[in-house]
Specification:
With 295 residues, the protein is of the alpha+beta class. The chain has 3 domains: 3-86, Zinc finger, CHC2-typedomain (DNA Primase, Chain A, Alpha-Beta Complex), CATH 3.90.580; 107-171, no CATH class; 178-291, Dna Topoisomerase Vi A Subunit, Chain: A, domain 2. It is built from 10 helices and 15 strands. It has a 5-stranded antiparallel β-sheet with strand order 1-2-3-4-5, with helices on one face. Strands 6-7-8-9-10 form a 5-stranded antiparallel β-sheet. The protein is globular, with a radius of gyration of 20 Å. The termini are far apart.
Amino acid sequence: MTIEQAKNIDMVDYLARLGHQPTKISEPHYWYLSPLRPDERTPSFKINRTINKWKDWGSGNSGNIIDFGIQYHQCTVKEFLQKLDANTLTARPTVPHLASPVDGEIRIIQVKPITSIPLIHYVRQRGIPIDIAERYLKEINYQLKGKNYFALGFKNDAGGYELRNKYIKASSAPKMSTFIDNKAKQLGVFEGFFNFLTHRAMHKDEPKNTTNYLILNSLSFFDRNIPRMSAHDRVLLYLDNDKSGDKYTKLALTTDCQKFSDERKLYFPYQDLNDWILNIGGHQKQQHQRQHRSP
């Protein structure tokens, strides 16, 4: 890979693959806890996605992806370009060994069925029946900076996990979306896995093979999944009710307004499907189940 080719790699996408997610998005600015200063408590690392450059206000450093890479990996420009060549930067990455940590980030120690009482309580707090959670989630024991933790894990198509418990929202590398193929002609698209699980819980008594599911795990994977979405006869978009959700829903409808459908009116003005279910209460949820059939 050349320097110019590397500079064209989207930095938001690249950081997502390293396991770093923005704490705040105000287009075109994406704010992070600095990946270059692991002890940071207040987000001060900003990416301007329009120009694809970053600035770390805590250290004063800034630059492009090359400048970031040689600092993050503590390597030369040549070595960083080799890392990019070896890394999976296409829509269909090579799946690495599950327990391989990426440069000192989260290291998966064990994957097992959910047995932890705190995690079971957390699942219930999010309004998800435990049988639905057990079908799609695992209990993950992992290490971060030498310390052991546990969380719910939702596996992506590259072998990484979205990690959640009451206190953390993280992911193990490599970061990627999750596609559940039921050989259907219809597709439901969700930003996060709790919204997907909410949808499955709402329609738990209906055949699951009527719909395929795409859980993005990050909106940075929306663009690259458009070909996969377009391969379906109908695509139902369950994105968030916010500016980013507006942006990508509009993008899809512009692509094909007959194929793509904005389903957010179902849970407006709530942020997302899970937030809606947690607020409308059991009676309205049952009423919705009677009135609406799964796509």
